[in-house]
Amino acid sequence: MIITRRLHVQTKGNTDIVDVTAGVGAVAEESGIRQGLVVVFVAGSTAAIMTLEYEPGLIADLREALERLAPRSIPYRHHLTWGDDNGHSHVRASLLGPSLAVPLVDGSLTLGTWQQIALVDLDTRHRTREIIVQIVGE
Amino acid sequence: MIITRRLHVQTKGNTDIVDVTAGVGAVAEESGIRQGLVVVFVAGSTAAIMTLEYEPGLIADLREALERLAPRSIPYRHHLTWGDDNGHSHVRASLLGPSLAVPLVDGSLTLGTWQQIALVDLDTRHRTREIIVQIVGE
Amino acid sequence: MIITRRLHVQTKGNTDIVDVTAGVGAVAEESGIRQGLVVVFVAGSTAAIMTLEYEPGLIADLREALERLAPRSIPYRHHLTWGDDNGHSHVRASLLGPSLAVPLVDGSLTLGTWQQIALVDLDTRHRTREIIVQIVGE
Question: Which residue of B has its CA nearest to C93?
Answer without folding.
Answer: B52
